[in-house]
Amino acid sequence: MQQPSLSELFRPFLETRAPLLFLIGSLALAILGNAVYELLTSTFGATPEFLIALVIGAVLIFAFVAVGFRRLLRALDARQVVVRNVVAPDQQADPHAGLILPVGLNPRGPEAAIIAWHQRNATLRHCWLLVTPEVERNAKFGDLKQSLLERGVTPHIVPLDDSVQAEQVYGQVRATITQARQFADAQPLIADITGGTKAMTAGTLLACLGAAVAVQYWSVPRDSGGNPRLAEDGRPMKVVVRMVLEEVATNDHSAA
Fold first, then answer.
1. What is the spatial distance between Cα 216 and Cα 205, in angstroms, rounded to a whole number?
2. Helices (H) and strands (E) in the chain — how many of each?
3. Where are the beta strands (DSSP E) in 4-121?
């Protein structure tokens, strides 16, 4: 059986989830602090100069420990980064003038990074945002819409009543594609399938497949645990769907 670490032993005394243990830990730290203070003042005297030096020393020690701990966390975090799903240059989706973008509720989602990618060289001119009522009430949606306006991109809102019905999403995306093709400055058109629900992904992909519209997926590096890193570090990967029809041989002699 693995022995608990020192930090695990002291953790219950420093967390408020267990009030009694937290009280015992607070009292122990207070007694320890008073004992150290009494020891120092009895040794060096409680003169104003010594107290000022003591305060300055405590502040410097605290700052040194805080900065060192932060650097240690960054170093450990950097070592955990394992770059996976690296998109080769020939597999990256180029910036497009028109973008169909499903928007999810995740505040750290890739939507802003996707818009920034297609805005390179002022390429993006129109963006159709697929949003549910929950997303439309979220502050994230307002920020995305405002960023599009500030970049000179025309936002188009495509409401989705039900984000778990792939058939409804399919119909809305097909109608969006028809609308987008009426704008000459929205061509070429591409759709992203990263954000939103699985039904939104499936409906968008099928609609684009039937209408011959390009599709992309925003691929981001992942750490050793498989968790996605910053969305800004990602790249759009072109999605290519190949349909394979397999002929199934029938046994004519199986019928009785």
1. 9
2. 8, 8
3. 81-82, 98-102
pLDDT in tens, 123-181: 999 999 999 888 888 888 889 999 999 999 999 999 988 778 888 899 999 999 999 99
Going from the C-alpha of 178 to that of each of 114, 162, 173, 195, 212, the distances in angstroms are 22, 21, 9, 22, 12
Joined tokens for residue 114: 């996707």
ω into residue 188 within 30 of 0, thus cis?
A: yes
Give the pair of three-digit tokens for residue 160.
């989705």
Strands 189-192 and 98-102: parallel
User: For strand 189-192 and strand 214-219, is the pairing parallel, antiparallel, or unpaired?
Assistant: parallel
Residue tagged 């910053």 (tokens): 230
pLDDT digits (tens, 9 = 90+) for 16-68: 666 777 777 778 878 877 888 888 888 888 788 888 887 888 888 878 877 87
Note the pTM of the prediction, 2 decimals.
0.62
Sign of the Cα torsion 149, 133, 95, 107 reads: positive
d(CA 20, CA 69): 28
Burial of 105 (0-12, 13-18, 19+ CB in 10 A): middle
Exposure of 25 in the CB half-sphere (CA atoms within 13 A): 14
Residue 99 phi/psi, 5-degree rounding, is: -135, 130
Would you call 152 exposed, middle or buried from its count of C-beta atoms within 10 A (0-12, 13-18, 19+)?
exposed
